[in-house]
Design a protein that fits this description.
Layout lengths: L7 H11 L4 H5 L3 H6 L13 E10 L5 E9 L7 E5 L13 H9 L3 E5 L11 H16 L11 E5 L1 H11 L23 E5 L5 H10 L3 H10 L5 H4 L2 H6 L9 E6 L7 H13 L4 E6 L12 H19 L1
Helix pairs in contact: 5-6
């Protein structure tokens, strides 16, 4: 495992970027404190060349080395930092899944770090959420190495990665999710400043029922592999978490939804957005016309619109 260690230079860069005097106060920033910190200026219309590199992230319980793909703008920085969580129905894909979106965001002046997540065949829920929780803490420690700011860390999640992102944001201090230790900085927490999503699975059980109705046997199978034991499909359901009035963190949330999505239904997504706002959170919900579940995988006007929307959303959160 190549978990980078914090040294004096990194600590100074972190403290300088945020303008406080202690690592505990710096890396454990809650969203409100992070927004109050001196965040680097960000222009969503910025244009930077981007260098791409890869580093070892962590070795999971199945023995696979999870990797992190770093999209680093070439400039003075420090740049805002975004963690990308890939989709794949919890059973497929890796850090490359959102490459075009990651590059587009990074080219505007954002350090984007896409990480592999543990797949359901390697460990069921909450395995991938534990990876995401660890990734936030790991980034707060290591972002300065790639000229990124450790404050105001945001998340971009797609499909099942959006589900993981929502759980991560709702429950940043859940002891199950933070079970993977970060020995170099044990005081770091996994709170994030905002979450942007594309087609997130905001209601896991509704999505399962939809797959059953449409006789999508593989999708039904994927659900049963990930949610094991089965009752976790309800325990880890963002819609039901809000319906149960759990004590949660409500960070600003962006949901981009395809109007033609027959995987995650628009009306189910709209209900979640309304519930999130009713609970006191800020949720921007946008439906993209003529767009299926993974419309951003193809170039076109709606993909351009999605990229611009994510960048504008990031800018609003950094200016808040």
């Amino acid at each position: 495992m190549a978990n980078a260690r914090i040294n004096r230079r990194d600590a100074c860069r972190i403290m300088t970027a945020i303008g406080v005097s202690g690592v505990s106060g710096v890396l454990g920033l809650r969203p409100q404190a992070a927004r109050a910190a001196n965040a680097p200026a960000y222009n969503p219309g910025g244009q930077y060349d981007v260098s791409v590199s890869e580093v070892e992230f962590r070795r999971n319980a199945a023995g696979r080395m999870l990797m992190a793909r770093i999209y680093q703008p070439k400039g003075s920085g420090p740049f805002p930092t975004v963690l990308d969580l890939h989709g794949g129905a919890w059973n497929n894909k890796d850090r490359h899944a959102e490459e075009p979106m990651d590059r587009a965001i990074a080219a505007s002046g954002v350090l984007v770090v896409a990480v592999d997540l543990t797949l359901a065949s390697e460990a069921p829920y909450p395995g991938s959420v534990q990876d995401a929780n660890y990734a936030v803490r790991w980034l707060k420690l290591n972002a300065p190495k790639w000229n990124g700011s450790p404050s105001n860390i945001g998340v971009y999640g797609s499909s099942s990665g959006g589900h993981v992102a929502e759980l991560l944001a709702l429950r940043p201090h859940d002891e199950r999710y933070s079970a993977i230790p970060l020995p170099q900085a044990p005081e770091v927490d996994a709170s994030v400043a905002y979450v942007a999503t594309r087609s997130p699975i905001s209601n896991t059980f509704a999505r399962f029922e939809n797959a059953e109705r449409r006789n999508r046997e593989e999708m039904v199978k994927f659900n049963k592999i990930y949610f094991n034991p089965w009752e976790t499909i309800h325990e880890a359901n963002p819609q039901e978490i809000l319906d149960r009035h759990e004590h949660v963190s409500l960070v600003p949330l962006l949901i981009m939804q395809g109007a033609l999505d027959d995987n995650v239904l628009p009306e189910v997504q709209e209900k979640f957005a309304a519930t999130y706002k009713a609970a006191g959170g800020t949720c921007e919900f946008h439906v993209f016309e003529d767009s299926p579940h993974e419309w951003v995988a193809k170039e076109g006007p709606q993909t351009d619109k999605a990229r611009a929307m994510v960048k504008a959303f990031i800018a609003r959160q950094l200016q808040a």
